[in-house]
Amino acid sequence: MIAAGWTLSWWGQRWIRWTLLSAGAIVSVLVVVMGFHLSVPSLSPDSGCTREQVQCMNFRPVFWLETGLFGFVCCVLLFIPTVVAEIVNRVENRAAADSPH
């Protein structure tokens, strides 16, 4: 969704692109924080599991952490071409403004 929104934002104003990118990064960080704060149900003594056994682990927080980190990495990777494109646009606009018609 982050990449699709970023791609579609190129047909709009600059502020839309930066707002979507910032919102995606903020939501991704919130998802990571939520993953850290999810409560994991405790194991009952009669379950036969210990905390060290992988088959007895609750992976729900891990999925939230992975999702948030993946979203944040996507935002960072999209930030780079966005900055480059902004620099190129500014240079082109200055060159067009400085050139005699």
A few lines on this structure:
With 101 residues, the chain is an all-alpha fold. It has helices at residues 2-8, 14-37, 60-98.
Keywords:
101 residues; mainly alpha; 0% strand
Task: Note down, in words, how this protein is organized.
By secondary structure, this protein is an all-alpha fold. The protein has helices spanning 2-8, 14-37, 60-98. The protein contains three helices and no strands. The mean pLDDT is 79. The longest helix is centred in the C-terminal third of the chain and has 39 residues, at 60-98.
**Strand-pairing-aware structural class:** mainly alpha
User: What is the number of helical segments per DSSP (H or I, 4+ residues)?
Assistant: 3
Our measurement of the CA-to-CA distance between the termini, rounded to an integer number of angstroms, reads 43 Å
Question: Largest beta sheet, briefly?
Answer: none
Any low-confidence stretches, pLDDT <50, length ≥5?
none
Mean pLDDT: 79
Q: What is the subunit arrangement here?
A: single chain
Order of helices and strands: HHH
Portion of residues in helices? 55-70%
